[in-house]
Structures are given as C-alpha cells and as structure tokens.
User: Fold this.
Amino acid sequence: MAGLTEDRTRGWFRGARETTQLDLTTGAPAGAQPTRAIGGTHATVQVDRDQLPGVAAAEPRTDAFPAAEPVVRTVEQHLDLILAAAPTPDPIQLAVLDAQGLLCAEHVVSSRDLPAFEQAALDGYAARASDTVGATPEQPVGLAVVGESVAGPAEPSAIGPGLAHRVTAGAMLPTGADVVVPTVWTDGGAVHVGVQAELVPGTYVRHAGDDVAVGDTAVAEGSPIGPAQISLLAAVGRDRVLVHPRPRIAVLCAGNELVDVGTTPGPGQVVDVNSYALAAAARDAGAEAYRSGIVPRDRRKLVELLESQLLRSDVVLIAGTFAGGGFDLVQEALAQLGEVTFAQVAMHPGPVQAFGRLGRDGVPVICIPGEPAAALVAFEVFVRPAIRLMLGKRQLFRRTVQAVSAQQLLSPLGYRQYLHGQVMRHPDGGYVVEPVGGGESGHDAALARTARSNCLVVIDEDVTEVSPGGLVTVMPMLLGG
Assistant:
C-alpha cells in the first residue's frame, strides 16, 4: 500500500490513474484500456479520452452573457487557467513574529558570531585539558577553584595551570580554559575540586562562531519561517525580515435564498455558511481572508462592492448558484466590470464554475458553486493551490494516499468525482476509506457528514464504479497541511 505521495505537476492527481486500475481480489492490472469499474468482475467500456470535452475557443465578448455555446473544461484545464493568472504579490517587510508561517524573500546573512564568545555548554568547572590528564574516579586530579561565573554580563577573567573556575551553562569562559568538566564528573568542591575524568580540549565548550559566523547564511531565501527561524533571526539582530505576504482573498456569497447567521431563516431561506467556511478555508491555506458576506441585491450597489473588493484583494472568490440559460444579477455586474467565463467543468459535485480577470489590474475572480459541500470541494481543487502558489510554496497540492474502499462507490462517466470520506489506518497496514455521504454521487451534500470527513476520495473520469476492496486515491484534509 502506498504512503503519502506528492503531486509536483500543475494538474490534479496526474499520474494517479494507473493505481486505480488494480483489481485487489486478484492483484492483476485491469489492462491498458480505461476500466469502468475497480475491484470485482465488471464489464469494460471503451472510452476515447480524446472525445472528452475540451476547452472551447474563446469567442469575442458580446452582450450575451454567458456565451451561447457552453464551455466545457477538464479539471486540469480550469485549474491551469487559474494558476496561470494567480498574481505574485511583491515581498514586504514584517516584524519577525508576524512573519511566522510565511516564506523568507531575502537571503539573511549574519553580521555577528553565534555564540559571540567562548561559553560553557553546561554547569561545571572551566579548566585546562592538560590539567585533567590521567584523572579517574579512583585517582581524581585536584584543582584549586579561584572564581565563579554565571550566564550574564561579566568581567573578563583568566586561569592558569592547576586552577579551575566554577561556571553555569552559557557563562563566559575565563581565558586559558579549554574544557568544562561536568559537575557530575567531580566531587563538587567549592574551594578545591577533584576532577574524575580526563577530557580533550573543547569538551563542553561552545566556541565563538560555532553556530553561525559573520557572513554565514542565517535564513536562506525561500525558507519557511517557523519558531526556529524566528529565534535565529532574533539572535543575529534582525527584528524585521522580507517575506512573501499572505494573499488577500475577498469572499462573497450570492443567492436570494441567503440570510446572515444571526437571522432566523424563513420559508425557502438558508443561512449563509459559505462565507464563513470559505474564509476559514482560505485562512487555513495561508491567505488573509476578508468575509464580505451576502452580496446586495441591487445592481449598482453590487458593482460598487465588487469594485471595492477588486481594489483591496489579490483574488475575489464568489460562491453562488448562477443562471444557466441567461444571466442573473451577479453575472450582469461581473460583465459590467470585465469578462468572466462560466464553464462546465468535468467534475462532481459542482460542475458549474467560472473564472475571469476584472478591473484595471486584472484581479482574478473565481466563481464556485453555492452548495456548501461543493463549494469546499471547489476551493480545495482550484483555490487552495492558487493561494499556495501566491505564497511562493513549492508544494501546491495536498499529499495523497492510496486506500482500499470499504464499500461500493459509484461515479458519473466523464466526470471526476470527489466524495467526502473518512480514511483510517488498517491494522494490517495501508489505509481504508469509507465515504461519509454514501457511495453514490449526489449523497455528499449534508453539512454534518462533511464535518465528519477527514479526506476527499477522488474517482477518475473514466471510472463509474469501485467495488469494495478497490483501490482509490484519497486526499487527507489535514488542517494547515
């Protein structure tokens, strides 16, 4: 059973399809041709993948919106459009503590030695290595204790042959000392100390510049800044650092049926959960999210709202159910500000997606389905990779595992299916996954079921059925992962 793997392509689970072609009841591959079912014995259907819907050529924009001919894209094609348009925010300087979780955008070189002076690595006695020759527990070497040093400001001191200086961890060593004898290797004397071990020069001594010397790299460009990097930046005297900033994501929700969380829904109304869920997902991905909530139902006010969000955001994310045959209020407002193309993406749930660039700066606008479970799936597939790209991350996509399906899974032919599920370790090794909403498409919408899930089960476009025991690709949904 495979472990966590990385997808380093700009597509989504490319190269994972062959792992779904195994019949675990026999251990034999299902063959080179696309297989319609995994596990068990099922008929095989010939599918010409070249005939799957591709990206239609863009037509010049007219007053008709959306285009008369529906655009159908694969998941990879829609994702590539979004990633290609993802802006790269200019690096900014932040206080080191505010830089936590971001990528360093400069090569930080130390202007000082760490440590800055010879110091004791632990509590004991600073001495000369030559004075410990032949020392054993049975025949300790006696030294006169002539001083004591603790960590902190101190006047320079020195020792000669036959002398020792009591020190604590981090204390400055006296001149002439080249070892620190741990207290447990002595009799602990205050005036005279018996050393019970022979030490070589440098034992338990931190030399100046041992950790970082002047001119050494403290934090390299592109390094993630965590607690260890923050401590090192502070140690070399940097209270501010240049970083790739968090992208600013504006989250809006459209729908006449929506009411805010503080309002009791009336007949036919539902609470706006998407603006909260998507803002939280954006923050978990590393973005600075602004929850604008439900869009106004007045066209002029909506255009003004969109214009203000375009000025303050790197990406505008809109969740809603949009008109299929004509165009609704949100689509009208978007059309007034630029071109956003609504397309059918070969995925389930939520095949209706949209993307465009609006405003003077061509800010990317991503429209995703309004159904909450579908909105979170669309965020994972399209928006989260874009956020990580804008953050400068090398790993855009979540790591995946191959897992055995605990039950039958059904999926529409020609669509990539994403099911919320629970993945767990099997006692015999590997992973087992079970969908939380049932194994059929369309049974994955309940919020409580989505909240109980810890992964997405991904079923390829050319698979319609996975039998119990079939192998599927699973994307664990680790917070902050």
In short: Residues 99 and 364 are 25 Å apart (CA to CA).
